[in-house]
Design a protein that fits this description.
The chain has about 180 residues and is an all-alpha fold. The chain contains 10 helices and no strands. The longest helix is centred in the middle third of the chain and has 17 residues. The termini are far apart.
């Protein structure tokens, strides 16, 4: 016998300041989303951010939720708020990439490229950042630049057996593009 547990309509807990507790609250919102209670999940996140306006992680989670639901234009200013509040490490990388992807999806390509170049300055070796930047370059008609970035991101990671000694000439040829 399976018991189906539903989460009652909840509001985020007020007066929590511990990051772990905020993450727990974000988890509750994600539970609502998993139950296909989209409106309740979004309202929960909006309330959480209202209660904790200086929590970059809460703002990022809300933006990513909106983004995942196809509401990119609504997510963009929320990503930007999370970024202004100060993220570090992978949350910073994710916010920059996701915000740029949202800009790209709504047709604001210069903003997407600006955001991805900012990400590249901080995460210079990150393949995700480079590949999203390549997509944006392609979108603005810089296909050779995009191809160069993809190739120079992937070639160093490919197994030598696969490349059969072609890595050095391929890298030289791709570096010569653009």
């Amino acid at each position: 016998m399976t018991i189906h547990r539903t989460i009652p309509k909840r509001r985020p807990q007020a007066e929590i300041s511990d990051a772990a507790e905020i993450q727990k609250q974000i988890g509750l919102a994600n539970d609502l989303l998993a139950q296909r209670r989209r409106a309740a999940a979004l309202e929960f996140m909006e309330n959480l951010c209202g209660l904790h306006p200086r929590s970059a992680e809460a703002w990022l989670a809300w933006a990513m939720m909106l983004d995942g639901l196809g509401r990119e234009s609504t997510a963009i200013p929320i990503y930007e708020r999370a970024l202004r509040l100060g993220l570090q490490g992978m949350p910073l990388r994710d916010a920059l990439v996701c915000c740029a992807s949202s800009y790209r999806n709504v047709g604001k390509l210069p903003e997407a490229i600006r955001m991805l170049k900012r990400a590249l300055r901080v995460f210079s070796q990150d393949a995700v950042v480079k590949l999203f930047l390549a997509l944006a370059f392609h979108d603005v008609g810089q296909s050779a630049r995009a191809m160069k970035l993809v190739a120079l991101t992937c070639l160093p990671k490919l197994d030598e057996k696969v490349l059969s000694g072609f890595r050095p000439p391929l890298i030289r040829k791709f570096r010569a593009l653009v």
